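Quick review question:
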């Protein structure tokens, strides 16, 4: 996807996660002590990872899965533990290097490969399924819809992704966050109504033959995210 807004946001995120947030992400991925607020984020991410995994069979042998926005690789390795061949893509080379370091100790059933780059690039080929955990929450709704539609063209079974649900708390955080200078804050999330997102996906011209399934919301302190599944009808 080459939309100018998407590309600009992607580069902002790459810069932020590669230079500003890498140390925090390393702590999230380990057992290192965290502040009370960040501990709720870790707990929320753990719960969301389990929620996404629950939407897949215990035996994924023979399946090729894309982990779009893989971060430190925990979800990639969990899917590979079920026998899948997993490609984890993240826009941050620093996070990918950290994931590769963690992979050195991995001894699971399936195969995992990590690459730095654009998770939407067609050069990565076709997949049986795609997961995208918290990697689309910073993009405009229109870009999220286009991203899912783009992935669907190369996916044979289903896509499970997360988005930031529109809630009073997230709306307030979103508004307040925009008051701070860009250099002093993380890239803003883009909350969206689950109903509105589902409607836009179902109405997309290239999503014919795909069904939007139910959603599951995870809320743990400062972590609020919602999983949605789209699959072939």
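Suggested answer, residue by residue:
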């Amino acid at each position: 996807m080459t939309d100018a807004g998407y590309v600009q946001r992607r580069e902002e995120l790459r810069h932020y996660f590669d230079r500003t947030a890498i140390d925090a992400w390393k702590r999230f991925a380990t057992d290192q002590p965290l502040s009370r607020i960040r501990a709720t984020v870790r707990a929320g991410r753990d719960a969301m990872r389990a929620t996404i995994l629950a939407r897949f069979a215990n035996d994924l042998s023979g399946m090729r899965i894309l982990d779009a926005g893989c971060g430190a690789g925990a979800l990639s390795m969990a899917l590979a533990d079920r026998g899948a061949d997993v490609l984890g893509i993240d826009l941050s080379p620093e996070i990918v290097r950290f994931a590769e370091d963690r992979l050195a100790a991995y001894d699971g059933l399936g195969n995992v490969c990590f690459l730095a780059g654009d998770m939407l690039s067609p050069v990565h080929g076709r997949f049986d399924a795609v997961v995208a955990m918290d990697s689309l929450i910073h993009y405009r709704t229109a870009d999220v819809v286009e991203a899912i539609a783009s992935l669907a063209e190369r996916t044979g079974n289903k896509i499970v992704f997360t988005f930031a649900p529109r809630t009073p708390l997230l709306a307030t955080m979103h508004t307040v966050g925009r008051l701070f200078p860009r250099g002093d804050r993380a890239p803003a999330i883009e909350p969206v109504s689950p109903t509105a997102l589902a409607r836009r996906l179902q109405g997309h011209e290239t999503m014919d033959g795909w069904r939007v399934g139910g959603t599951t919301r995870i809320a743990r302190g400062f972590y609020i995210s919602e999983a949605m599944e789209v699959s072939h009808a």
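Why it works: Residues 36-53 form the longest helix (18 residues). Residues 4-232 form a domain with the Rossmann fold fold (CATH 3.40.50.150).
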